Amino acid sequence: MRYLFTSILSIILVSVSHAQTNVIDGHEYVDMGLPSGTLWATCNIGAESSTDFGDYFAWGETEPKEEYTDKNYKFFEGYKEVPGVGYYLLCTNIGEDICGTEYDAARVKWGGRWRLPTFEEVGELVRLCWNKWEEVDGIWGRRFHYGANENTLFLPAAGYAATYQGTTYRNQNWKGYCWTGTLHRAEGDPDDLIMKAKDIDYDSGSVGRRSSMRTIGLPIRPVINLKETGIDDIEYKQTIRMAYHNGSIELSSIANCDHIDILNIYGQKVLSSSVTAKNIDVPQFSKGIYICTLTKKGKSIYTQKIIIK
């Protein structure tokens, strides 16, 4: 009986493992069912598992280093004085978006179609996914979960790598970062003030999209999107907007959608209905957060978080 139970348990574990991960271009990914179709790698570059921190890269560099300083940054050009204010770092402009380019460590190290995530793809994790701070095998990090999909993404709190007076600090296991391929520009900044790039930033209290100095080392969690290769073309533009008002969800247009699915905060489907009018009655919905997904002929075209107060 014990042998039978063990065998059944082994089959279940193997089945779950295969359901959660697959391999593309030599590396495992997890499909969380995100609206964009983005597939996230299960580990950072240089890591062997989801809890390994992996390697650290300055933005636009494709090899890890022992030290991360301004002056050993490949694209360092000097400093510029701002009278009465101080100095800021001058860096070579290698592009507003380096995803998939020669400056993308994910593309260079992993090859194939793997690349850095964009700022928008990181935003999809932040805006649409439920996430929680948890410990796995002694490593803290954020686990992301989308809708009713059982597959999850774990990002370890790998910290960063920055060198000061000969010592490289990493601050691991309490703060997490991962690069995107998007350059940071603030409104009103001078054209040559491009010393930062966008990242995802998370700890025990929050997760968000922010920016860091390009010269420091951050981990990279590669992504892949088969829609970019022509395998799964996007047919409809995501131009619809939704809002909740007096017991109904109001759509700005129904021209490009024919069905709606709504999930509650627990990932349970609470409504699945054809779309025939701009107003969808949901009088039974209680206060809380809901994820609404519109589809057209089975293709997801727009997903939005709705809060009922």
Automatic annotation (TrEMBL):
Domain Secretion system C-terminal sorting per the UniProt entry, residue ranges: 257-308
Residue ranges the record marks as coiled coil: none
Signal peptide start-end: 1-19
Keyword Ion transport applies: no
Keyword vocabulary terms for this entry: Signal
One Pfam assignment: Por_Secre_tail
Top-level lineage group: Bacteria
Annotated TM spans: none
InterPro entries referenced in this protein's UniProt entry, alphabetically: Secre_tail
Name listed for the protein in its UniProt record: Secretion system C-terminal sorting domain-containing protein
Originating organism: Prevotella nigrescens CC14M
